[in-house]
Design brief:
It comes from Halovenus carboxidivorans. The chain has helices at residues 43-49, 66-69, 80-87, 108-120, 131-138, 142-158, 175-185, 190-197, 205-219, 238-250, 267-283, 291-303, 311-324, 342-351, 370-383, 423-431, 441-447, 455-464, 469-480, 486-512, and strands spanning 18-21, 27-30, 52-53, 73-77, 93-98, 124-129, 167-170, 229-233, 254-259, 332-337, 356-358, 362-365, 393-397. The protein is of the alpha/beta class. The chain has three domains: 11-254 and 390-397, 3-Layer(aba) Sandwich (Rossmann fold); 256-383, no CATH class; 413-517, Orthogonal Bundle (Tyrosyl-Transfer RNA Synthetase), CATH 1.10.240.10. The protein has a seven-stranded mixed β-sheet with strand order 3-4-13-8-5-6-7, with helices on both faces. A four-stranded antiparallel β-sheet has the order 9-10-12-11, covered by helices on one side. The protein is globular and about 80 Å long.
């Protein structure tokens, strides 16, 4: 979710998702926010979890960041909502955070850059320190947390975060986040957390509480007003995003769905109703389509073997349609009462213009399009002191490979470069890094290197080439063609990482003198 730990590889710095083999022999991806395994095929995330390919929307992104252009940011969930706000100059927000359990390193820089880029595009930017999670899930002392929190914030500022235009906070000192977490916790239960996070009877309550606190973090930018909000994370954090989207819907006063009759149906049944209505209307455009007509149509389709929907689903729907009998089958939008107060429900009835029908727990409107109905429901909810949350969006970046191969891990110093490393140490780590080169220089010249398997080339792509795509491509092609040998390539990368660390640490020192001016406490009184 909204944090990256430094005592083990998470999100952007190496912890990828565990793969499990199902009974059928097909590998599934188990996304674990606290795990330490690896995703070997990112395409599985599109198929199994509904993450969409970022490349498909790249052309709509204004001045895309190089991480987007180079497919380091590879996926998204509902990011078009954020892009629409950018294009229309409407408010939007970006939030991500960091669990302060170690030093920030080059993996964390991915998320830093994503927050800063969205801020530069006009977004309200939020950077949070997940100190409650660090204390509950990792057992760090508050003194350790204070030190690491300071270091994360210093690096975020040194890389370009504007604190005057953005918000920095700690979970432990943000009462609004804690209050929101309490309210969100009412909508979640242990069975759900057990299923999502594999919690069991040994999981302590504070760890579970840290999860709902993260949900509150994700929705915090919308407390003042609902607005599209993007959460930049690694794919291992997707369970947090999905739970936050569910909770955002559960605390809404009203749900808005499409319907065709007075009774409630499932999503699969609604799809069947839509098919029946469209087909019967096309056949008899001048006649009123009634529920019993749709029942007869569905039964005939089932007998003809024209549908692959389960027999149980069809039977259930046919029964309801026959019970409704002569009731007209008509498309409408339905406002479902989820958590509305009596006053809010009455207010919504008054606000709906045109033909409508009021039931005990929902209202059907016949003259509203779905998007207009959704906006009206939110307006009424806000008028009667509801949240009106929009479902949060997310973007997903690939994990960095460790310099020694395998995952990048803070527990293996040689595998990563800390943003606090002495520049000469950073130089030495790159010089000692594993490469995608061949066994000999002669073989490299003949066959070319393997940049797609090279941690050093990743450094160019993710960091060292900066915004210069031509330079990144030049390194790639020279390696693949055999014109670039590993020794010279590592020397160039080592010099560049040394320069980066020198520059970054100079900027950290400049900000260190101004930390007291920020609205964030680094010395916990806990």
């Amino acid at each position: 979710m909204t944090r990256e730990s430094a005592d083990h590889s998470t999100s952007e710095h190496g912890v990828e998702s565990e793969e499990a083999v199902t009974d059928g022999g097909v590998e599934d991806v188990a996304l674990d926010p606290w795990g330490s395994a690896a995703v070997s095929d990112y395409r599985k995330l599109f198929e199994q979890f509904g993450i969409e390919e970022f490349e498909q929307i790249l052309g709509d992104v204004p001045a895309p960041h190089y991480l987007m252009r180079r497919s380091v940011i590879f996926g998204h969930r509902d990011y078009r909502r954020v892009l629409d706000a950018m294009h229309d100059d409407d408010p939007f927000a970006v939030l991500s955070g960091f669990m302060p359990t170690g030093d920030p390193h080059i993996g964390h820089k991915l998320v830093f850059d994503e927050i800063i880029w969205h801020q530069q595009q006009g977004g309200d930017a939020y950077g949070l320190i997940a100190d409650l999670e660090a204390h509950s899930a990792r057992g760090l002392s508050w003194d350790e947390i204070d030190e690491h929190a300071r270091n994360y914030v210093l690096s975020l500022l040194a890389l370009g975060f504007d604190p005057e235009e953005g918000t920095l906070y700690r979970q432990s000192t943000n009462r609004e986040v804690q209050d929101l977490a309490f309210e969100l916790g009412i909508e979640a239960n242990f069975s759900e957390l057990e299923a999502i996070y594999d919690f069991d009877g040994e999981t302590d309550v504070s760890h579970m509480q840290s999860v709902v606190t993260q949900m509150a973090d994700i929705l915090y930018p919308q407390l003042d007003e609902p607005k599209p909000t993007v959460i930049p994370v690694g794919p291992d954090q997707d369970p947090h995003v999905r739970l936050a989207r569910d909770l955002a819907a559960r605390v809404r006063y009203f749900g808005v769905t499409e319907a065709y009759a007075s009774f409630e149906v499932t999503a699969d049944e609604r799809e069947l109703l839509a098919e029946a209505y469209e087909t019967l209307t096309d056949r008899n455009p001048e006649e009123t389509i009634r529920c019993r007509d749709a029942a007869a149509y569905l039964e005939s389709e089932r007998e003809a073997g024209a549908t692959d929907v389960t027999a149980t689903t069809i039977d259930s729907l046919v029964t309801m349609l026959n019970e409704a009998g002569k009731e007209p089958l008509r498309p409408r939008v339905r406002f479902v009462d989820r958590n509305a107060t009596e006053e809010a429900f009455e207010g919504l009835i008054e606000a709906i213009d045109g033909e409508k029908r009021v039931y005990d727990e929902h209202i059907d409107a016949f003259d509203l399009a779905w998007d207009a109905a959704e906006e009206l429901a939110r307006e009424v909810e806000l008028e009667y002191d509801g949240y009106g949350f929009l479902p949060p969006s997310s973007i997903y970046h690939r994990f960095m490979t460790g310099l020694t191969g395998g995952k990048m891990s803070s527990s293996i110093p040689a595998s990563h470069i800390s943003l606090l490393d002495d520049p000469e140490d950073g130089y030495d780590k790159v010089k000692a890094a594993t490469t995608g080169g061949r066994q000999s220089a002669e073989e490299q010249r003949e066959l070319g290197g393997k940049p797609d398997e090279c941690p050093v080339y990743e450094l160019y792509t993710y960091l060292l080439a900066g915004d210069d795509d031509e330079f990144a491509m030049e390194v790639y092609e020279e390696c693949a063609n055999g014109d670039r040998l590993c020794g010279g390539c590592k020397e160039q990368a080592a010099e560049l990482i040394e320069e980066f660390l020198e520059d970054h640490q100079e900027k950290r020192e400049e900000w260190a003198d101004k930390l007291d001016e920020l609205d964030i406490e680094f010395d916990s009184d806990r």
